[in-house]
Design goal:
By secondary structure, the chain is an alpha+beta fold. Among the domains are: 84 residues, Conserved hypothetical protein from pyrococcus furiosus pfu- 392566-001, ParB domain (Alpha-Beta Complex), CATH 3.90.1530.10; 62 residues, no CATH class; 74 residues, SH3 type barrels (Roll). 34% of the residues lie in helices and 16% in strands. The protein has twelve helices and ten strands. A five-stranded mixed sheet has the order 1-5-3-4-2. Strands 9-8-7-6-10 form a five-stranded antiparallel sheet, with no helix packed on it. A hairpin with a 7-residue loop joins strand 3 and strand 4. Helix 5 crosses helix 7 and helix 6 crosses helix 7. The longest helix is centred in the C-terminal third of the chain and has 16 residues. The radius of gyration is 37 Å and the shape is elongated. The termini are far apart. It holds the Pfam family KorB_C. It comes from Massilia psychrophila. Belongs to the ParB family.
Length: 334
């Protein structure tokens, strides 16, 4: 049986129904004008419980979150959140980056937030982002390094992964095991500079009592310059074996610390040139501090400009004080 012959003018491919092909080629391709991020329901997003920022981070203060929310437009933040699939709860997401934006979105009452899905994210990415924009407190960085070390990571590997030097990592590791007096001033915010804290820790190993006494002064500023002066003073003190200042003078008797041990000596005949009566052989500066008689310890290096070491005349206690709190009484010859 012969196959039917197609009618004239009709294509065997059925293309006759498509009309004029040239008209299709002339029509512009319709592409979406907005290729922005996904809009994810806010109530499907969970914060990462292991994020490096802690709850008391300044960026999480209510006023800081409110300020950030005020900067949002009607569609929320311009910078989308980075999310990953929540493997424990299918259909939900965990934040990689953007915890503050998420909290600000909730504060503003937004039902959806712009976001990208990045399932290749790891916890190092959070650390790197926050470090590079100086968004984390030293204690938080130290704790993150501690977790890495506990998990078997080496300091060198952490430094390479985070784009920092090995010495930088070592400085933060020091914060994990500080001597008690230094831990106190670090935790209460008196010392926030990581370099300063490390310098104090080194000085404490060499002379713990002196450093503890220095830190016990409530008005003592803890800066790089102040700590440098402290270390220089302790270095000089160690060189002379920690001997007492030979110019320590009792205000009642006028004797130095060494006079009593050597015993009084009768003055002998003078030889050579007579001493210049206009010059003091040894100056004793008598002062008053807190209503008590004291003297300046002239050979002890002050911790900073505007400070000096004093010794009370009634109980012999040595301490450092601001010269603004000292009243000059007399300058005598020792």
């Amino acid at each position: 049986m012969n196959a039917p012959i197609p009618k004239k003018g009709v294509s065997g491919l059925g293309l006759d129904s498509m009309g004029d092909l040239s008209s299709l080629l002339d029509e512009p391709t319709q592409e979406p004008r907005d290729r922005g991020p996904l809009m994810i329901a806010t109530d499907l997003i969970d914060e990462d419980p292991n994020q490096p920022r802690t709850q008391d981070n300044p960026g999480f203060r209510p006023e800081s979150i409110a300020e950030l929310a005020g900067s949002f437009g009607p569609k929320g933040p311009k910078t989308p959140l980075s999310l990953r699939d929540n493997e424990a709860v299918p259909g939900r997401y965990i934040i990689n980056h953007g915890h503050r934006r998420y909290r600000a979105g909730k504060f503003k009452g937004l039902s959806v937030l712009p976001a990208f899905i990045d399932n290749e994210h790891d916890d190092d990415d959070q650390i790197i982002e926050n470090i590079q924009r100086e968004g984390q407190a030293p204690r938080e960085i130290a704790n993150a390094i501690g977790r890495k070390l506990a998990g078997g990571k080496k300091k060198k590997a952490i430094a390479e992964r985070w784009g920092k030097s090995a010495s930088w990592v070592t400085q933060y590791v020091t914060l994990l095991d500080l001597p008690e007096p230094i831990a106190v001033v670090f935790n209460n915010g008196r010392a926030n500079d990581v370099t300063v804290v490390n310098e104090l820790a080194t000085a404490y190993k060499e002379n713990p009592k002196a450093v503890e006494g220095w830190l016990s002064v409530p008005t003592q500023e803890i800066t790089r310059g102040e700590v440098k002066l402290l270390r220089e003073f302790l270095s000089e003190k160690n060189k002379d074996g920690g001997q007492h200042d030979p110019v320590t003078v009792d205000l009642g008797s006028g004797q130095t610390d060494t006079d009593g041990e050597a015993g009084e000596q009768e003055p002998g005949p003078k030889t050579g040139k007579e001493a210049d009566s206009s010059k003091l052989k040894k100056a004793i500066v008598q002062v008053e501090h807190d209503g008590r008689p004291a003297r300046l310890m002239l050979t002890r290096r002050p911790p900073a400009e505007g400070y000096a070491w004093l010794k009370y005349g009634d109980d012999g206690k040595e301490f450092e004080a601001s010269l603004a709190d000292v009243r000059l009484v007399a300058v005598l010859e020792g």
